[in-house]
Write the structure tokens for this entry.
Amino acid sequence: MDKKGINKQKPLIDLDEFDDQVSIYQLIPAGEGKALKQLKLIVESVLNGDVEKDNPKPLSLLISGKNSTKVYAKAFLRALGFEDIREIPAPVIQSYNDLIEFFHLSSPDTGHVISQAQNIRGMIVKDLYSVLTEGILTRWNYTKMNKTVFPVLGTIVVTSYSQSSVPFEIRNCFTHQIEIDDYDKTQMELVCLQRLLYSNIERENDKVLKLLTTLRSSFDSTIQLLKNSVMVMQAEGKGNVLTEEHVKKASYFK
């Protein structure tokens, strides 16, 4: 057989890798696209700015919205050149020691993402205030009877369902704030298509995209349905073409 005549399929790329690779210049705008435009302006102002400052306050960003906040957060940090990106959900931060562990040995080249800020525990709000306004964590050392200061370096991005759900003590402490609009149905179809193309997956027809966005309404649930549909496709082992039937079968999963 002539090997040149064999149509080899491109290898599949895990859909989960998309969020860690996509650039802010590739993101599909949500709603009117104001948040994405603002995010690009912030990046360009940081990269093109040549400002020296004595203020230790770190660069910080609050991203709020119902859709893709973590995607925006990590794409923002990558656009600034960060390779060391740490991420933690706010509910996991139970104490001051958890904050110390998260920020431990950070450098100016470290990016930090704290997600689900609507669930920040009250006992760490004061410490986060110090981080955002002074770039430090402090604790009174009762043994030596003095204050121990831990510097927090790098850039901090906090994400939340809405700005109003962030504790008011820190809500206005961020260098920048953006709020992501909801995706409309057409934009959500493009979001799904972009991920399929990234993963080298073809679609049976455009009805596949419409079905994905009809069976699920929110951003997260639609992306999960897409991932489950790809899982069904892979389980059948018949190629890299996502069909309506795959989506229908996947829709029964929780």
